[in-house]
Amino acid sequence: MTTAASTIRQQDLIQSVADALQYISYYHPPDYIRALARAYAAEESPAAKDAMAQILVNSRMCAEGHRPICQDTGMVVAFFKVGMDVRWDADMSLQQMVDAGVRRAYTHPDNVLRASMVDPPMGARQNTGDNTPAIVHVELVPGHTLDVRIAAKGGGSENKARFAVLNPSDSIQDWVLKTVPTLGAGWCPPGMLGIGIGGSAEKAMLLAKEALMEDIDLHELKARGPADAIDELRLALYEQVNALGIGAQGLGGLTTVLDVKIKAFPTHAASLPVAIIPNCAATRHIHFTLDGSGPAVLTPPKLADWPALDYDPTVGARRIRLNGLTREDIAAWQPGERLLLSGKLLTGRDAAHKRIKDLLDRGAPLPEGVDLTNRFIYYVGPVDPVRDEVVGPAGPTTATRMDKFTDQLLGQTGLIGMIGKAERGPAAVAAIKRHGAVYLMAVGGAAYLVAKAIKASRLVAFEDLGMEAIRELDIEDMPVTVAVDSRGSSVHETGPAEWRSRIGKIPVVVA
Predict the structure, then answer these.
(1) pTM of the predicted model, to two decimals?
(2) Of 351, 331, 345, 315, whose CA–CA distance to 116 is shortest?
């Protein structure tokens, strides 16, 4: 049977890509909101519940304000199924059309998105300035339409991708349960796990990424029961991963994953390739089809899809003035304590830390304005501001990447505190204890909410680094949690351990 050919116009695809990327920058998928709201209602860990509340409040704020859910607005990954009867009215390649859409989306004047792509990937790593190029996958299929799945994948979760070739007789469940705890909290749970099984090395990774494009339906699967071995594995891993007690933001709690998605493909008799890729709390993906009739029409979700929350960050939190703070002051802070920070702090990420290290190694002075004595540094690369904003969304980046710089900065600059997301490694925790410093955690996936606490911003050093430059922020009531205290106690160790033990004693309730 033949079908009429569709003609896809170049500008329709470019506009559709741009509109889709703007859309997913500020609208969570409704399935994610519903799943997170259920997890929030069931959560018994105060720290995890607070983190989920911030994510849900931030999500609604972004939907209303049309600003990014997370400051890491992701690298663009697109999957195309091109009907073999499709015709093109275009003089660009598919890659060029997608990149033009990315460029248009990420430089939109009303909602500027952060450019994160660097080229070359080693050495100079110069930011491309417009978040191009996109990662594009193409499959030719029967038909006369263009099927598009597009995502903006954050670096924190992408960095936690893992792959192994197991023996055919090995347990996939055992490998996943051994691997997930090694991911830490840098992928910003609660989110999804995409698992690819079979094929070859690259096919398994591709399957895992494709799995993350599917809707969250674990609740429905539990209600109807498994139909095959894949469903059985999904249910088992959902229960077992959550029983690890990692919890929201790694703070310990009942929910670490909202769903486990699995895609499989035949493989060689001697092999069992398995890949796992997590999706973070800033889950961003969308699906649309072009049939030649014009650009994609994307319908906004209803605000009624978000739960009504009575969230007040001041309840149970201690207000702290950063200006004039001393090591003696921070020594009184307790692990897991919630703080509201006000005053001035400096920003700095990987590239800025590397430059500071190089200056310290040479015995050279730090740039003017970069005096870290009794100061805090916030690991952040904010989105550019629009309209009357001081800064755009400005949530934390993964602190673990700065671990290798921590001892030197604490020992040679007078720095007393750091703010980021996720856990610190053993060497960094030891350095924090040795120098009587602290590490505070802000919630990943609540970038717009955090930005509302920033009242002023000025560039201090390394302007050429763009979003990684050092800035001084003036903040008011910025919500954080004491993640590592001055005695070296880490809530990312104690919290999951406590909840792993408690979950083991909670009776299993069959839905």
Answers:
(1) 0.93
(2) 351
